[in-house]
Each structure stands twice: as structure tokens, then as C-alpha cells.
Specification:
binds adenosine-5-diphosphoribose; 10 helices; 18% strand; single chain; alpha/beta; globular; six-stranded parallel beta sheet; 9 strands; 33% helix; three-stranded antiparallel beta sheet
């Protein structure tokens, strides 16, 4: 793997997508066997779909919630947790598009889940957010106000979360690493070129060439579980 500038003073921003969880058995969205080849996203992942048929939306998310306890973080998740632990406070920011909890379970402390979390639900009435993977049934309601609960997920057409913190980390980093994302969904896909325009060096690890590959200085094609651990170990050897 070609050398990537990394030192004790490096500030790193990492963006991960579904590809980093693929080796743990979690489906990606696009490409062969992706979720969007089996489900119509306009029927299960938009606020309009939830208004139209909340049962169908809950059925989709209940399946994915039920899978979470059956999968484990893989070597790529663990490599990032090791890197965070070895870097000075504030020098490592992990931004993920993933709604699974595998980064958190691998031990990464500061994970910005910009598209929400499967392990959380939100009340459409009082806004209470509850962390639970219990089977809540086909159409769960809030214990305190009785309104319907929805998955704490950012659907298409909704504003991602933590954009303020993310914007600071992306503009401030020396190195931006994108892992396992197709670079097709904005604003996430635009952060790589934003980092580059602010002077950062950019690195990408992906099975296929992502749509934003032109903004990547160092692109490594392959599986995250195979390519990320040696890259991280090489960086750790410089700390
Ligand atoms: N290692 C590295 N990359 C992989 C691996 C792997 N083992 N397996 C698949 N990939 C790559 C694929 O080549 C693909 O480019 O991961 C990428 C996954 O792309 P998508 O399925 O489009 O997932 P993602 O980029 O995370 O999607 C962005 O779209 O559907 C919405 O909200 C959803 O957060 C999601 C967003």
C-alpha cells in the first residue's frame, strides 16, 4: 500500500458506509443483493411512506433491528477503534452513514451517526428518544404520550444529524478517510471533496470505485476487513 502522510499531529476524519459492515453480514444498499434491490425505498424509507403505511415501514426496520444482535463487529471496525484509542483526544472523528451499532460495539467512543440508529426509536408526539432493541411489535406507541413511535432513522428527504459537528471535523482535518461507501448519497458523499478543498489529503477503501473517486488521493480497492487493519497498524507504528 502506498504511503499516506500520517503523524502524531494528524487530525483525522473518517466516513464509513454500509461496505464496512458487509463482512459482518449486514446488507449494503446498492449493488448486487443490496437492500434497494429487494425493497422499494419510497415504500420503506421516506416520511411519506411512514405516513402512508407505517406498518410496512416498521416491518422493514423490525427485520433489521432483529438482525443486529446476531452480527458482530469485524476487523475493520476494530481497527478504527484501536486508532481512536491511540490518537490524542479530538484528533479522531468517526462519521458513519450506518445505522447499525457495530462501530460502538467495537469500542469506538466518538461515533457521529448522521443517518440515525436502528437501536433507537423516537416518539412522533413528544419526541422522546429511547434506546432499545426489544421487539416493539408491528406498530409501537409511546408509553408516556401514546403517540406512534418511529425508527430514529434519517429517511430520504430528511436532514441528517450532527451536521454542525461534522462540518467542523471535515473542514479541520488533515486526513479524510472514506471506507465502504458508494459516494452516491449527499450530503455525506460531498464531504470528501469538502475536506480536500480545505487542504486535507484523502484516502478511500472500497470494493468498487465510488462515484467520488476523483476526489480521492490514495484509493485502495478491496475489502475493508482486509485493507484497513494493515493501514491502521502502519499509522499506529508512527504514533
Ligand atoms: N469492503 C469495502 N467496501 C465494500 C465492501 C467491503 N467488504 N462490500 C461492499 N463495499 C462497498 C461497495 O462497493 C459499495 O460501493 O460499499 C459500498 C456500499 O455502498 P451503498 O450500498 O451505496 O452504501 P452507502 O454508501 O453506505 O449508502 C449511503 O444510502 O441508502 C442510503 O441511508 C442509506 O446510509 C445509506 C446511504
Amino acid at each position: 500500500m502506498e504511503a499516506v502522510p500520517f503523524s502524531t499531529s494528524t487530525r483525522l476524519a473518517v466516513m464509513t458506509g454500509a461496505g464496512i459492515s458487509a463482512e459482518s453480514g449486514v446488507s449494503t444498499f446498492r449493488g448486487k443483493g443490496g437492500l434497494w434491490s429487494k425493497y422499494n425505498l419510497y415504500e420503506v424509507a421516506t416520511p411519506e411512506a411512514f405516513a402512508r403505511d407505517p406498518r410496512m415501514v416498521w416491518e422493514f426496520y423490525n427485520l433489521r433491528r432483529a438482525q443486529l444482535p446476531t452480527v458482530e463487529p469485524n476487523a475493520a471496525h476494530h481497527a478504527l477503534a484501536r486508532l481512536e484509542a491511540a490518537m490524542p483526544d479530538g484528533a479522531f472523528t468517526l462519521i458513519t452513514q450506518n445505522v447499525d451499532d457495530l462501530h460502538d460495539r467495537a469500542g469506538t467512543k466518538h461515533v457521529l451517526h448522521m443517518h440515525g440508529e436502528l437501536a433507537k426509536v423516537r416518539c412522533t408526539g413528544c419526541g422522546t428518544i429511547t434506546e432499545t432493541l426489544d421487539d416493539l411489535g408491528p406498530l409501537p406507541h409511546c408509553d408516556s404520550c401514546g403517540a406512534m413511535l418511529r425508527p430514529h432513522i434519517v429517511w430520504f428527504g430528511e436532514m441528517p444529524m450532527f451536521l454542525d459537528k461534522i462540518d467542523v471535523a471535515v473542514r479541520d482535518c488533515h486526513l479524510f478517510l472514506a471506507v465502504g461507501t458508494s459516494g452516491t448519497v449527499y450530503p455525506a458523499a460531498g464531504m470528501l471533496s469538502l475536506a480536500k478543498s480545505c487542504g486535507a489529503r484523502t484516502v478511500g477503501i472500497n470494493l468498487d470505485e465510488p462515484d467520488n473517486v476523483d476526489s480521492i488521493d490514495h484509493f485502495f480497492q478491496g475489502k475493508a476487513g482486509e485493507l484497513l487493519p494493515p493501514l491502521v497498524d502502519e499509522w499506529l507504528s508512527r504514533l
